[in-house]
Amino acid sequence: MAKLATGLMDNHALTHEVAFDSGWLHIVNQLKVKEGLVFAPPERNKVRDVPLPDRVAHALQQHMEAFPPVEITLPWLRVDGPPVTKRLLFTRLDGASAVRRTDFNDRAWKPALVTARVIPQPKPGERHQAAREHGMHALRHFYASVLLDSGEIVKALTHYLGHNDPRFTLRVYTHLMPSSDARARKAVDSLYEGIASTPCIP
To answer: Which residue did the predictor score with more confidence, 200 or 114?
Structure first.
């Protein structure tokens, strides 16, 4: 099992152990800002396993080949906490520190949204519009909507997202769940998928 930490942005960004051979991400801690970057347990202390799709695993392995993991040492829980060293898959260009959420949002994520015409290009001298729905957190909602649309059960999604209660997951994401009539159409369509339709001849 290949075990590597993936250092992402600050606040709710997580680090993981990546098991390419079994197809799982084991979420073990996160990077937070406490007057500086620190390693900490996952939100709500929810250590958990999340499925790693083959395409995502392939992209992650390609990234690791182009940008080998870097050992980063940060304090644990508090800026004066004991030092902990993790191998991070994502670091700043200097390779000496973890990527902060604000840096990633301003330099990569929001320019990508502009290119995709999701948000407008800021005027010269101005910054991108500050909106929660334009941040990286939107990917979490996208992930949840994809799983719900494919028929994943709420209990499993609750575990993957690190929620404590399926009722909370339902309250947040119930509007993303496909309606029963949509599920019925999809189920019957999938049953006849690949079958060529021919006219009925009496």
So the answer is: 114
Cα separation, 202 vs 93, whole angstroms: 71
Element (H, E) at 88: strand 83-88
Show Cβ contacts of residue 1 under 8 Å, excluding neighbours closer than 6 positions.
17, 19, 20, 21, 22
Cross-strand partners of 40? 30
Question: Percent of the chain, pLDDT > 90?
Answer: 35
| DSSP code string of 127-169 | PPP--GGGSTHHHHHHHHHHHHHTT--HHHHHHHHT-S-HHHH
Sign of CA dihedral 130, 132, 137, 142: negative
Question: What is the number of other CB atoms lying within 10 angstroms of the CB of residue 121?
Answer: 13
